[in-house]
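Margin note: ligand = fe (ii) ion.
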Amino acid sequence: MRMRDLVDTDFGTVDRRIFWDRAIYDRELERVFARSWLFVAHECQVETPGAFVTTYMGEDSVIVARGDDGINVFLNSCPHRGNRVCFADSGEGRQFTCNYHGWAFGLDGALRKMPKMGLYKSTPGFRMEDWGLKRARVASYQGLVFATFCDEAPPLADWLGNFRWYLDAVLDAEEGGTEFLPGGATRSVMRCNWKFPADNFVGDIYHALWTHLGGADPALGRHGGVKVENEGSYQVSANGHGWEFNNSFLGNAATMGDREILRYMRSRQDAITARLGKFRADMWGSVASATIFPNFSFLPGYFTFRSFQPKGPHQTEIHAWTLVPRNMPSDIKDRFRRGSMRTFSPSGLLEMDDGENWEHSTSANAGWVTRHQRLCYAMAPIAEADLVGLPGTVTAGQLSDANQRLFYKRWAEMMDAQSWADMPLPPAMVAQGTAT
Amino acid sequence: MTATAERKPDYATYPRLTMAQARAAAAQLLAMRGDGAAVDDPTLLAIERFYRLEARLLDEERHDEWYGLLADDLFYWMPLRENRFRRDPRPPLDPAAMALFDECKADIAVRLGRLASNLVWSEDPPTRHVYVVSNVEAFSTELPTEFEVHSSFVQHRNRSEHDEATLMGRRRDLLRRVEGGFQLARRLILLPQSVLLTKNLSAFF
Ligand code: FES
Ligand SMILES: [Fe+2]
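Resulting structure:
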């Protein structure tokens, strides 16, 4: 089955089997997740040597550890009999010792020692260096750490490509870098295919006008006072990554209903504009959502960053953190901590409305007739014309399915391609500083 | 509908806590270890009655009446649980860390405003709730009108056909005796799950 036959990315239709079939899901683990650069941590989570977190890359459990010379990412499964090695979500230590027979691994994943080591020393052909925890390639962009188990994948900078220029609007708005607010990831389970939330964040502001009416109502009044129009708004896509946004600077943040946050954000507007130029400064907290292909998404304004971890074709685990500029005053950070929790967390006034949609968009496909009817990703309003001069594929108007079509285009390319040679990335444009 | 939409309450005027007040309330909850003298049986019975009433009001979606049981200085907190090694020196519950609920009374009012908007499709048709409270232990505090109460709960939900979630946990409350009953002034809710094994927390605890 060729995946490009299942998604028509010109007009915009998608075969529903891609949200249901086990065989397609297994191919995703191999061809998408095992070949992509995947978000694994923020540098601040592993700041000092010995600090570690555990997470997932696809369904592979991994350890992210700061060694003496950098951040290492390796499989969290012992090569002896396969047991999980580290059961803590985060912590600090010098080695990871497997519970089963006591094999111990260093911060680089290398096998260090085990009980009765002499038995192996005298085993012909056994070499310690052959039996470490399998290591991934690691690279960072503006504090975000990514990893891949694919040796052929292009460098992270090329993988992100033109999207980097936009990412700086949230990752480099303020001097001094960013950090995740304290505490581990907020984690929850949804019985949906991972692509529904990923495609929602890549370009679906359209749903907010209806799904989130109730959640926005108490804070903002009916229709929220938040404007979602195709004037002054955009969708940008690069390499399957996508961001839909308007130029409101703080439109998303306004729905947290905290006037002190808005006052603070306004006080930073001039400085951020001087740093990024008006076009990107206006994106900082605006009505917007974004996905870094395949499954790492964020919302400017609330600054919730989340990965949609695949757990089978019909289940997804959300891991979420809140990212703020390191130099933000601590009382404002605390307001973002509460504000992002109260909107986008399992108890969030807005997130609570999303899950049921994605779960039923998935479970309906149990019906054979149902799953053989295509879904509509066709919205392409007149405003959706290509804009030139900005990096990536930019279309005017945030209310459209443009980014979703390009997300599934990239998805199908990766699913069908045997090797990286068959799915090249376009060269990144040199960022031009300030577009206005 | 339009009438209510036009008369939108100004939540900024509702009772709030400063960050310092919230932190002090969290510290008070974290210090609760059942060290005070156990209350006498009539007081324990009155507290158990209060919990049965509270659970029934929530089960029956009588949210405004439930809201009336909350003190103006309410602090309502459900921290995240993380898997950490026993040797880890960090405090397991940190009021500065991300949480699942971290609320003052005004925040609860906004949540009730959402539910009352009649625009929440994920609660229409309504979810059915059953709330069971058990293992109630009550202790006296320095103030004769305030009680430290520990309990456990089962919060069961079903909606639509197969959509079901059962959450269990422990609570630590500070109850204040008021005319005609009690008010809830502080609540710490501890779910045992580190990954919330359901899609949302569209419920009160
Ligand atoms: S499985 Fe890990 S030491 Fe044997
Ligand atoms: Fe949403």
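Chain A has two domains: 38-139, 192-435.
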